Prior knowledge:
The chain is mostly beta strands.
Amino acid sequence: MKLGDKVRCTAYIKKSGFYYDTGIALDRHYCCCVTAPDVDPEEVEDYHSCERFKMVEKEFTGVYVGTTTINTRLAAEYYDDTYRTGYRTFTEEPKKFCVVYFKENQKRIVPIDRIEVVSDAETR
Protein backbone atom coordinates (compact mmCIF):
# COMPACT_ATOMS: atom_id res chain seq x y z
CA MET A 1 0.00 0.00 0.00
CA LYS A 2 1.20 3.50 -0.82
CA LEU A 3 0.23 6.80 0.75
CA GLY A 4 -2.86 8.19 -0.93
CA ASP A 5 -4.21 4.81 -2.13
CA LYS A 6 -7.98 4.42 -2.12
CA VAL A 7 -8.91 1.56 0.19
CA ARG A 8 -11.93 -0.46 1.24
CA CYS A 9 -12.18 -1.35 4.94
CA THR A 10 -14.47 -3.84 6.69
CA ALA A 11 -13.90 -2.75 10.31
CA TYR A 12 -12.23 -0.17 12.53
CA ILE A 13 -11.43 0.17 16.21
CA LYS A 14 -12.67 2.66 18.77
CA LYS A 15 -12.09 3.09 22.49
CA SER A 16 -13.89 0.51 24.62
CA GLY A 17 -14.64 2.93 27.45
CA PHE A 18 -12.73 0.82 30.00
CA TYR A 19 -10.37 2.53 32.39
CA TYR A 20 -8.72 1.65 35.68
CA ASP A 21 -10.17 3.16 38.80
CA THR A 22 -7.93 3.14 41.86
CA GLY A 23 -8.71 4.28 45.36
CA ILE A 24 -9.25 3.37 48.98
CA ALA A 25 -12.53 1.86 50.19
CA LEU A 26 -12.99 0.75 53.81
CA ASP A 27 -9.23 0.89 54.41
CA ARG A 28 -8.64 -1.50 51.49
CA HIS A 29 -6.85 -0.52 48.35
CA TYR A 30 -8.60 -1.48 45.16
CA CYS A 31 -8.02 -1.25 41.45
CA CYS A 32 -10.44 -2.40 38.78
CA CYS A 33 -11.23 -2.12 35.09
CA VAL A 34 -14.59 -0.33 34.80
CA THR A 35 -16.70 1.49 32.24
CA ALA A 36 -18.49 3.79 34.68
CA PRO A 37 -17.55 5.30 38.07
CA ASP A 38 -20.50 3.63 39.88
CA VAL A 39 -19.39 0.04 39.13
CA ASP A 40 -18.38 -1.95 42.20
CA PRO A 41 -14.60 -2.26 42.28
CA GLU A 42 -12.90 -5.63 42.04
CA GLU A 43 -9.63 -5.86 43.93
CA VAL A 44 -6.50 -6.59 41.91
CA GLU A 45 -4.28 -8.89 43.93
CA ASP A 46 -1.39 -9.29 41.51
CA TYR A 47 -1.98 -8.42 37.84
CA HIS A 48 -5.03 -7.71 35.67
CA SER A 49 -5.67 -6.54 32.11
CA CYS A 50 -8.65 -5.62 29.91
CA GLU A 51 -9.31 -4.52 26.34
CA ARG A 52 -8.59 -0.88 25.52
CA PHE A 53 -10.41 -0.88 22.15
CA LYS A 54 -13.39 -2.63 20.61
CA MET A 55 -13.89 -3.65 17.00
CA VAL A 56 -16.70 -2.01 15.01
CA GLU A 57 -17.82 -4.03 11.98
CA LYS A 58 -18.56 -1.50 9.22
CA GLU A 59 -17.69 -1.31 5.54
CA PHE A 60 -16.40 2.02 4.25
CA THR A 61 -13.93 3.44 1.76
CA GLY A 62 -11.28 6.07 2.29
CA VAL A 63 -7.72 7.16 1.66
CA TYR A 64 -4.76 5.39 3.28
CA VAL A 65 -2.42 7.89 4.97
CA GLY A 66 -0.05 5.69 6.96
CA THR A 67 0.34 3.29 9.85
CA THR A 68 0.49 3.70 13.59
CA THR A 69 1.35 1.48 16.54
CA ILE A 70 -1.17 1.38 19.40
CA ASN A 71 -1.08 -0.49 22.70
CA THR A 72 -4.33 -2.49 22.72
CA ARG A 73 -4.66 -3.57 26.37
CA LEU A 74 -4.90 -1.76 29.70
CA ALA A 75 -3.13 -3.41 32.61
CA ALA A 76 -2.77 -2.92 36.35
CA GLU A 77 -0.20 -4.40 38.65
CA TYR A 78 -0.03 -4.40 42.42
CA TYR A 79 3.38 -3.79 43.95
CA ASP A 80 4.46 -3.88 47.56
CA ASP A 81 7.93 -3.20 48.84
CA THR A 82 9.27 -1.67 52.00
CA TYR A 83 8.87 1.92 50.88
CA ARG A 84 5.95 1.88 48.45
CA THR A 85 2.59 0.15 48.21
CA GLY A 86 0.04 0.62 45.47
CA TYR A 87 -0.96 0.05 41.90
CA ARG A 88 0.73 0.76 38.61
CA THR A 89 -1.50 1.09 35.56
CA PHE A 90 -0.10 0.93 32.04
CA THR A 91 -0.83 -0.12 28.46
CA GLU A 92 0.62 -3.13 26.66
CA GLU A 93 0.40 -5.36 23.55
CA PRO A 94 1.47 -2.96 20.80
CA LYS A 95 -0.05 -3.68 17.36
CA LYS A 96 0.20 -1.93 13.98
CA PHE A 97 -2.90 -0.30 12.47
CA CYS A 98 -3.65 1.66 9.30
CA VAL A 99 -4.85 5.26 9.43
CA VAL A 100 -7.65 5.92 6.91
CA TYR A 101 -9.41 9.21 6.23
CA PHE A 102 -13.00 8.50 5.21
CA LYS A 103 -14.41 12.06 5.27
CA GLU A 104 -12.87 15.49 5.31
CA ASN A 105 -10.87 15.82 8.57
CA GLN A 106 -12.25 12.49 9.90
CA LYS A 107 -10.12 9.39 10.28
CA ARG A 108 -10.48 5.84 11.53
CA ILE A 109 -7.92 3.37 12.81
CA VAL A 110 -8.21 0.11 10.84
CA PRO A 111 -6.65 -3.30 11.61
CA ILE A 112 -4.16 -4.21 8.88
CA ASP A 113 -6.00 -7.43 8.03
CA ARG A 114 -9.30 -5.55 7.47
CA ILE A 115 -8.16 -3.26 4.64
CA GLU A 116 -7.59 -3.72 0.90
CA VAL A 117 -6.58 -1.42 -1.94
CA VAL A 118 -9.37 -0.49 -4.38
CA SER A 119 -8.33 -0.64 -8.04
CA ASP A 120 -9.03 2.26 -10.41
CA ALA A 121 -11.58 0.12 -12.31
CA GLU A 122 -13.63 -0.39 -9.12
CA THR A 123 -13.82 3.34 -8.33
CA ARG A 124 -15.35 4.30 -11.69
